[in-house]
Amino acid sequence: MRRPLIAGNWKMHMTLADARALIKDIDQRLGQLDGTSDVDVLICPPFTLLFPIAKAVADSPIMFGAQDVHEESQGAFTGEVSVEMLKDTGCTHVIVGHSERRQLFGEKNDRFARKVRAVTGAGLTVIYCVGETLADREGGKTRQVVDRQMSEVIGPDVPADRLVVAYEPVWAIGTGKTATADQAQEVHGWIRGNLASTFDQATADRIRILYGGSVKPVNAAELLGQGDIDGALVGGACLVSEDFTAIIAAAAARQLA
Ligand code: 13P
Q: The pTM is what?
């Protein structure tokens, strides 16, 4: 069985003081829960917090990662951060291809393909995000869009053991609208099929596919109960320790069941 991963994407939230308080609270709550040693827990704060957070999580099971990276190793790229710089912080994961990068910053699949290779080539794990817009879904194009986001970025040269995929339907992000468990499972199944044709079935069966888009304590158990949903990429709810740990608890309960 794939080990669940519950990842919190902090986006552009949290100052240092807030971050320390949040981590302390999450850590304390995790200590009181059963089964959390069977769940991977990750937080992805803004770049500026990575170094202090490395210290703050040092004695806890919480892993940390970055929300983005530049594809080049160094150079005249004002405002950007390379994967080697991220490695310096001790982080283990990097999110690539988030829909906010696609929609608000105009980044495209060719760039994500390079970022994925930069991250995995440096030995870090990439969380590559895909997902359709509302227009795509209503136009019956979900499968086509997601397949393309996968095929144009993930090739057999990507080390599968450093790859996590996150399915985040754009219409469900920050809107309070969640895909139903059936809708999410359907797309996760397609993604796993896509991974099987890129790699092979046994490899595809090892890769974790997370669901993201208004994951909350109230819907986490049902989503995580689906066969191809191996965890969650959580936005808003990860900023509230009670909610984030409740989602982790849902993943732990699934493992204990
Ligand atoms: P919300 O959980 O706030 O919908 O955000 C999801 C997301 O974009 C995580 O990367």
A: 0.97
